[in-house]
Design a protein that fits this description.
Layout: H1 5-25, H2 28-43, H3 45-79
Helix pairs in contact: 2-3
Length: 90
């Protein structure tokens, strides 16, 4: 991406939260999911709640997996010296 690992970490540190803000905070997921859910809710309430359950289950699995991967990458980066410790950290 750029010339140094610090600049790459800086860019990624802002891209990921902005992506999640766009998806969840600004309503991209809501705009695509809510019409499907309300239509299903009008026809069959049980299937609508099953749809909601599946969505929240997949979101939980995906976000938990993403968190674990991020933690492992940061742990390996620090332990292997790819992410250098500076005077203000450890």
């Amino acid at each position: 991406m750029s010339g140094s690992a610090v600049a790459d970490a800086f860019v990624i540190a802002f891209r990921l939260p902005n992506l999640f803000r766009r998806l969840f905070g600004e309503g991209a997921l809501t705009a695509s999911y809510l019409p499907v859910f309300t239509k299903q809710l009008e026809t069959d309430r049980l299937k609508a709640w099953q749809l909601a359950s599946v969505l929240f289950t997949w979101l939980t699995v995906f976000l938990s997996g993403l968190t674990v991967v991020g933690e492992l990458v940061s742990w390996f980066g620090v332990s292997r010296g790819a992410i250098r410790r500076t005077w203000y950290c450890c």
